[in-house]
Structure formats: C-alpha cells, structure tokens
UniProtKB/TrEMBL annotation, chain B:
It is found in: Cell membrane. Keywords: Cell membrane, Membrane, Transmembrane, Transmembrane helix. This is ABC transporter permease. It is a multi-pass membrane protein. The chain crosses the membrane at residues 20-40, 46-66, 73-90, 96-119, 126-145, 165-187, 219-238, 250-267, 274-293, 299-320. Its main location: membrane. The keyword Repeat does not apply. The keyword Lyase does not apply.
Length: 330, 340
C-alpha cells in the first residue's frame, strides 16, 4: 500500500522553479546576492574600488584561478579532492617557461607541459582508484613532490624573465577584454548546460552520493574518477601557463596555498566535502567573493599578513557550515 | 595434520612495521657512515639529537591522534607560536615557570579549539587543522611583524638551561623525549585508557557501543597533541635562545610522514609510540643525508613526497589484501571492477 502511495506521489510533485528549493543550483542566487552586496558595500565606501582598472584586475585574477577550479570542482563532486592543483599549477607554468627559455616554440612547450600535468593527474587518479587510497592523503604527497620539482625548475631558471612573446600571452585581448575573462564566461555557460543536460554530470553526482550503488548500477566509477583527476590537473596546468605568462618570471611562491583558496571557493559555491554536489557557476562566484573580500581588506589598509588568517578562518567557517548542512540533510 | 602456526612475537606485539622501519633506519645509518665521513662527527651526532628531540615530542601527540584515526596539521604552527608566547612572557618580566606554562597553555588552547571543532561539531579534521595552521601562521606574522627575523633574544639563565642541559654528550631534551616516548608506550600497552585508544580507532562504532566516550577522547587527544607541540616549541626556543618565526614551518608534513612510516595508519587503530620514534629517526636521517651529500633542498621535498606516496600505496595494498582481494585483482592489468 505504501509503495503504490509513493508511486502515485512522485509524478504529482511539480518541477521546481530554476532558482528555488534545496535542489540543484539553489544557492546560486543567494550567493550572487551576497557577492553583489559586498561589491556594493566596497563601491560605496571606497572611492578607488569601483575604478575600471581595479575591477578589471580583480576579474582578471579571478578568471585565471577559475581556469584551475574547473576540474577541481568536478573532482569534489565525486567525493574526492585534489590538493595537488596548486603545485601542478606552478609546475606547468614553470615548465612551459623553462622550455621557452630553452628555445622551444610556444605550442610544443605548452603541449609538453600540459602532457606532464595530465600524467600527474592520471597517476593521482589511478592510484586513488586502484589502491583505494584516500585522495586527500595521496594528493598531499603529490603536492609535495610536484612542488619540489617545480622549485628545482624555478631555481635552475634563477629568476630569468620569460621570452617576450610568452609574457604577452596573458595580456591578449579579445573584444577589448582579457581573453581569460572571455574564456571564463564561455566556460560558465558551457558548465550550465553540462550540469543541466549531461548524463555524465548526473553519474558524477551519483558516484559522489554513493560509490557502491553507482558501481552496482554499472557506472564506470574508476574511469570517470581518473578522467576527473586528469581534467583537474590539466585545467590547473592551463591556468598555470597563463599565470606564468602574467608574472613574467619563475617564482617559487607561485600557486602557494592555491588549493585551499579553491577548496574554500568551491564549498562556498555549493560543493561539499561529502560529495554529490558541486557547481561550476557557484565556484566562480566563490572565487569572486574571496577576491572581493581580499581586495576590500587591501582597500581598508588591513595588514596583508592578516589575509592568511582570514583565509584560514573562512575555510573553517565554510566547512563548518557545510558539515552542519549535511548533518541536517541526513 | 598441520599444526597451527605459533604467532611470532612481532606479530602479537604488533611491531612488524616498526621493526621494518628500524631496520631501514639502521641500514641508512650504516650506509651514511660509510659514504660520508662527516656523519659520525660529534657535531653531526649532536645536531641529529637536537633535530630528533622536538620532532619526536610532536610525533607522540600526532601518533596518539593517528591511533584514533585523526591527525593534526597545525602542530608546526603551534610549535612556533608557543615558543613565541613563552618568549614574550619572559620579555614582559614574568618568572620562568609562568613563561613555560604560558607557552604550553597557548598550544593546549589551540589544541582544544581543534578538538572542539572536530570532536563536538564533527568537522573534517584535515580542514580544521589546516585552517588553524593558516590562522596561527597569520597570527605569528602579525605578532612578529615589528621584530627582526628572531626577536626576543635575551632569556634568563634558567630558561636557557631548559633546552641546553646535557648528560655526558647526550643532549638533555633528546633524553627527555626518549623517556617521554617510553612512558607513552607503557601507557598505550599496559593501561586500559591506552588500549581504549587503539580500540576506538580500530572500530569507532563498536567502541562507542561499548561505552567509550568517543568525542571526549578525541577532544583530549587534540589537546594533548597541541600541548606536546607547544612543549617541543618552548624547549626548542630555550635551546636556540630566540623566538624564531619560522620555527616548525613545514614540520607537520615531516611528522605526518614519520608516523605513517612508523606504523600508523590514517584509518586509525594502528600504531605505536616506538613506531613514531622509528619514523622520526628515518625522516631525520633522510634530511641529514641530503645535507651531508649536499643535495639541493628542493629535492628533499620531492623525495619526501615520493616516500609518502609509496607508503600510502603500500598501506592501500595491505588494506586490500586484508579484505581478501587476490593479488591479480590488485596489481593485474585488467582487474574486475569490484565495489570497494
């Protein structure tokens, strides 16, 4: 009796409106409002905030970090995490620069660097899937390893600036806007479609919710996970190439702590450490929110060393929120 | 009729991995002594002792957390800030015991904060301790921003003596850390609360059903870890004679790896304090080897990361074997896709 009742009940439920309820994409509007409020607050209280130059530089920074968070978000959807992104980011950028300094052409250099990034991602994913290792631990290991390799490269370069053609890459404009900003907008639109229409995204959410059940239902859990890790490393690599071009020389501090900025941004944007959720639009907004907060702190002359404290506190606060929300849902 | 094989001592005492690590440590020491004449130099041995001592003290707290299936990445920063706290207390003219207590209390308070968030709010311990690591480093930068690289250098005699006493060539804090290690090992093996730690880590659900207070134990383990890290920080500040803002930077990963190599498991329910000693010796010897053989320090991170990945893979294989997966399934080219 109860079963028939339930069966009758299901189709009667109306489809939820786009931005409501606690389903997919529910917190995007709220998040956008919070971001807008912070933006309005800063624009009203600080004169030099709402200048074209400042906003452009914030968006430019966000758009590069956004490139790195694409794969990362989808790794988080599957209840895994990839903490090696910051290191892969630095490694790929530095490797591209080192090859260019060594006289390679841009495309071969970038291609080789991206292949190296993909290989790191594949190893991460393969080890996680095959030996059932906690990805958090494993990627801490690969984070250290890749960071070491990247520093070896950077020290060999010894602060040389990259060739001019490479330095101008990040400053390329498309329709009078930085090309990475255009790419970000395009990717967010694509992700919207991907998350609403694609079976792959549904499968990924399923894996994040319940791996065993997903396996039983014939989803290729291992393959999808490995692909996500490869994607995470490669998107981090692309962002790294742009950043290397932007900072114009090899720097051992490049991408340091990026992984925690990204965890924070992704969780603010609706992803969860407990898997099954994650939204690229939200991640983009999360990055924008963090960038606005940090920029606002500079505008208010708060000591820059205090930023570390704020990032740590925000990380704990968002994860605490995530945990409490998840407990209620269970 | 086949007789039942007697369990070996190492297996029944759960010291298999510890023995393996100790063997590797001894081999490493012998190899180093052969290829580098500077290894057995008294100066090098003395610096090894002072490198092992604080790491071991921190590793004891970390190993306690490993036993219950948790870990604490904020220990390096806690070590730094508690050393600074005691130095500032001395600078304000407080007596040595008060300054000592101030340092320890700082660490224990940070540990209590970690424990509160992890045990009672149920937040992921990696995120909490990482966030606290960032926050603590931020506070250190703010506190030390007016100072030189190492501020507060004038300590009273009694405080410096805390870190610098010795017994016929053996460093005092090294002896102290060894005694502490033996004490913890005895606590873990011989007393009921000690056994409860391993039980809790091995099977939290069963342990809670048996009436072990999981949350309270977790909380106090985090306080212990913070307090021990603070102890190491204060002793090291006394030893070097100044409050250094870079003290303990990146230490958490070394301790983490030492505990994993020394027989701990991130899943909990495994590990011993003797193993922590073995792991710390291994990591310290590895660092020492890099310095003696003049390898650039960047390669150190590469090797430590590679060792961590290898240990995790080995740990993963062991876990899969214990669940009865055949070798073909673990290492074969085309394993069947099985639910884990």
């Amino acid at each position: 009796m109860t079963v028939t009742h339930r069966l009758d009940d299901t189709p009667a439920r109306k489809r939820k409106p786009l931005f409501a309820g606690n389903g997919f994409g529910s917190n995007i509007l709220a998040l956008a409002l919070v971001t807008l409020a912070i933006f309005a607050f800063l624009a009203l209280t600080r004169q030099n905030f709402a200048t074209w130059q400042n906003l452009n530089s914030i968006l430019f920074g966000v758009s590069i970090e956004f490139l790195a968070i694409v794969g990362f978000t989808y790794v988080m959807v599957m209840r895994e995490i990839d903490l090696s992104v910051g290191s892969v980011f630095a490694f790929t950028g530095t490797l591209t620069g080192a090859l260019l300094v060594g006289g390679w052409g841009f495309w071969p250099a970038a291609g080789v660097a991206l292949l190296a990034a993909a290989a790191i991602g594949f190893v991460n994913g393969f080890l996680v899937v095959r030996f059932n290792i906690n990805s958090l631990m494993l990627t801490i290991g690969s984070m250290l390893l890749v960071r070491g390799l990247s520093n070896v490269l950077a020290n060999d370069l010894g602060g040389q600036t990259y060739p001019r053609a490479f330095r101008s890459l990040a400053r390329t404009n498309l329709f009078d806007i930085r090309v990475t900003i255009v790419v970000m907008v395009v990717l967010v639109l694509l992700a919207w479609g991907f998350q609403r229409r694609s079976a792959l995204y549904r499968k990924m959410c399923f894996i994040g919710e319940n791996v065993k059940s997903a396996t039983v239902h014939g989803i290729r859990v291992g393959t999808i996970k490995i692909l996500a890790f490869v994607a995470s490393a490669m998107t981090a690599g692309v962002a790294g190439i742009f950043t290397a071009s932007r900072i114009t020389h090899a720097d051992v501090r490049m991408g340091l702590g990026l992984e925690f900025v990204m965890v924070t941004a992704a969780i603010i944007g609706g992803a969860s450490l407990y898997g099954g959720r994650g939204d690229l639009r939200g991640s983009a907004l999360g990055l924008l929110l963090l960038a606005l907060v940090l920029n606002g702190m500079i505008m208010y002359d708060i000591e820059p060393v205090f930023q570390q404290f704020v990032i740590g506190a925000l990380l704990i606060a968002t994860v605490a929120f995530d945990t409490v929300l998840n407990r209620r849902g269970q | 009729m086949s007789s039942i094989r007697k369990t070996s001592f190492l297996r029944s005492a759960r010291l298999e991995q510890e023995t393996l690590t100790f063997t590797v440590v001894v081999l490493l020491a012998v190899v180093l002594a052969i290829i580098s004449p500077a290894f057995l130099d008294p100066n090098n041995l003395a610096s090894l002792q002072t490198a092992v001592a604080p790491n071991l003290i921190v590793a004891l707290g970390m190993m306690t957390l490993f036993m219950i299936g948790r870990f604490d990445l904020s220990v390096g920063a806690v070590m730094g800030i508690s050393g600074i706290a005691s130095a500032m207390a001395l600078d304000a003219g407080m007596p040595v015991p008060v300054a000592f207590a101030a340092g320890i209390m700082t660490g224990a308070a940070i540990g209590a904060f970690n424990g509160l968030l992890v045990a009672y709010l149920g937040i992921n311990h990696l995120i909490v301790t990482l966030g606290v690591l960032y926050m603590t480093r931020g506070v250190i930068e703010v506190v030390m921003s007016g100072q030189q690289l190492g501020g507060f250098t004038s300590f009273p005699e009694a405080f410096s003596l805390l870190g610098q006493w010795g017994l016929s060539g053996l460093s005092g804090i090294f002896l102290f850390s060894l005694i502490l290690c033996v004490g913890f090992e005895g606590f873990m093996r011989l007393t009921l609360p000690g056994r409860k730690l391993l039980f809790l880590g091995g099977n939290p659900v069963a342990a809670e059903a048996m009436g072990i207070a999981r949350r309270r134990t977790e909380f106090w383990c985090f306080v212990l870890s913070g307090g021990l890290a603070a102890l190491a920080g204060v002793l090291m500040t006394a030893r070097v004679g100044m409050a250094n803002r870079y003290m303990g930077d990146g230490l958490e990963m070394q301790i983490f790896i030492a505990c994993l190599i020394g027989g701990g498991s991130i899943a909990g329910g495994k590990g011993s304090y003797v193993g922590a000693l073995a792991g710390v010796l291994f990591v310290t010897l590895l660092t020492n080897a890099f310095n003696l053989l003049l390898v650039p320090s960047e390669w150190q991170a590469v090797v430590i990361g590679a060792v961590l990945v290898l240990v995790l893979v080995a740990d993963g294989i062991m876990v899969l074997r214990k669940r009865g997966r055949p070798w073909r399934n673990i290492l074969g080219l085309w394993p069947s896709r099985m639910a884990t």
